[in-house]
Amino acid sequence: MSERKPLRLGSLVATVVLAVAGGLLFNLLHIPVPWLLGPMIAMLIANNAVENRFHWPQPLRNTALIIVGYTIGLSLTAAALKEIAQQLPYMLMMAVLLLAYCAGIAYIVSKFSGMGYKTALMGSIPGGLSQVILLAEETKGINITAVTFTQVTRLMMIVICVPLIVFSPILGQAHDAAATAAAAASAVLPTWGGLFPNILIFAVAAVACALAGNRIKLPTAYMLGPALGTAALQLAGLHGPALPGTVIQAAQLMIGIYVGLMLRPRQLPNKLRNLTLALGSSVLLIAGALGMALLLSALQPVSEATGLLSLAPGGMDQMGIIAHEIHADLSIVAGYQLFRMFFIFFVVPPLLRMVLRIQPGGRMKRRGAA
Q1: Burial classification of residue 258, based on how many CB atoms lie within 10 Å of its CB (0-12 exposed, 13-18 middle, 19 or more buried)
Q2: Which of 34, 252, 278, 344 would bridge 153 by S-S if both were Cys, CB 3.0 to 4.6 A apart?
Q3: Whole-structure pTM value
């Protein structure tokens, strides 16, 4: 045990050093969301070059989620919640469209790859990774490794590509970003002194709500619990102070490390084929989300960037971070992401079980083993 602790500590220190180096490099290169993407790419490369040398405790990732949850909760004011309620029909429509689109992608992947439709469908569902993996484990004929790899690849592709699309001329965000940056420069930035004393109340509430949410099996409890708790305190009339930029960057770094360490291509059989299929399906999914974002912006008074972050099938924590960075409508982004998360959590599993049970058993068993 005495040898294991120094080894873990050394691995943790090496992880932090490499992640900070990645963040500094991406910041120097002016790459969007550098403290999320830099650590993520650094850990992806390093962990696959030298296996089992890096370590990131789950409590650190949970701490980052609590910070992001608090930031999201600050945006859920009474006016924002009223606007979210008005958006509910569009949230349902977009969730159904996105899931139907993902089912179509899974069909194409299964035809071209020989992979069972069950496996392809589980890999394409835009839900939380842990939730999809649990559902896959409960379904016979599923290649768990392929599902995990496809889901993580999709998540990383979205986290990498969405900021680049948002800041590109495709959505006209380049001009908006420059204007936003100028406005932000002239605005009063959050300070450490401005946090007290209210931050103490919000911190206790955020941690308590995270732990309570985890105990009752709330989806993404360490983010959703603090978001709901923070929103409730604000609605009760207590002012929640904005966090300094260094705290937000630290949360980005912690989440970036976690995501980067998740992907292990060398553990996957048929690496080239599976990587090609995962990348191809991710590109199709991003293109579909972009098209739906343009449709949403035409139907509702939201910007294309806000629409894309609302509909991008990545984690709400990553999309929330990006929305915060570009000063998008964080309440709308959180509302759409939350609605889809609950829709997938409560509605999709029974539907999938019903659909997969209807499939011809013999054919699905033979192909599902692929």
Answers
A1: buried
A2: 278
A3: 0.75
